[in-house]
Amino acid sequence: MKKIFILWLITFSSVLFAQNNSTKSVNQLEKECNSKNAVSCGSLALKYEYGFGISQDKFKAFELYQKACDGNNIFSCYVLGAMYFDGEGVSQDKLKASELYKKACDGNNNNSCYNLGVMYQNGEGIVQDKFKAFELYQKACDGNFSSACFNLGLMYFKGESVRLDKFKAFELYQKSCIGNNENSCNNLGVMYQNGEGVRLDLSKALSFYGKACDLKSQIGCENYAKLKNTGVK
Q: Where residue 231 sits, what CATH number does that domain have?
């Protein structure tokens, strides 16, 4: 539940970013990048990374992301951090990844704040610091990043690095579920089914399990089936 959400986030964001710049030719982007236009460098990097209108070249993409990040293109710093984390187009270096995530997070990239929070929570590539993780999840959640709200909810539910507060956990799960986080929807179902942090309500439990199932949560589907079989509507 606390895995770093790198691959799908980068792919999704990258495709959108590339589509937004699809009207510009590779030659035009190269000229603009050579003129120190950081956004164009980042757009060109995406084309090389995914082979949009050009032969795929992840090493070239890495170089261009670096140039764009040096020019304070925050999205490029985020992608560059993920490349260092995964060792994609560059030797794996999780400490460097954390530095780039911090730069991007400071620039209000919620994905980076979340990923850095996971690294701090798990002590992955950096010294474990769950209080720092909590702060980063809070920042990303304030930016409506649903996975961060889910992790923050877990910390309140368990009393991990913060005073145990199941009502606060419930509120965070609600926010995250509205953002279509299947784990939060399932957890809301559990809380309603058990009357934990909220008044027991089996119909609402069933509804949240159903939403979690619709969002492809296997445990949500299992919980929905079990509760449905008891006759709850």
A: 1.25.40.10
How many angstroms separate the CA atoms of 171 and 150, rounded?
Answer: 10
Cβ neighbours around 144 below 10 Å, total: 13
Map tokens 């929905």 to a residue.
224
Q: What span, in angstroms and rounded, lies between the C-alpha atoms of 142 and 126?
A: 24
Provide the domain limits for residue 230: 146-233
Note the pLDDT tens digit of each residue in 38-82.
Answer: 999 999 998 998 888 899 999 999 999 999 999 999 999 999 999
Place of tokens 């995964």: 86
Contact yes or no for 132/140 (Cβ under 8 A): no
Six-digit token pair at 1? 């539940």
Quick: pLDDT tens for 94-147: 999 999 999 999 999 999 999 999 999 999 999 999 999 999 999 999 999 999
In a domain, 117, yes or no: no
Distance CA 137, CA 8 (A): 19
Contact indicator for 79, 14 with CB cutoff of 8 Å: yes
Q: What's the CA gap between 61 and 211, in Å, rounded?
A: 39
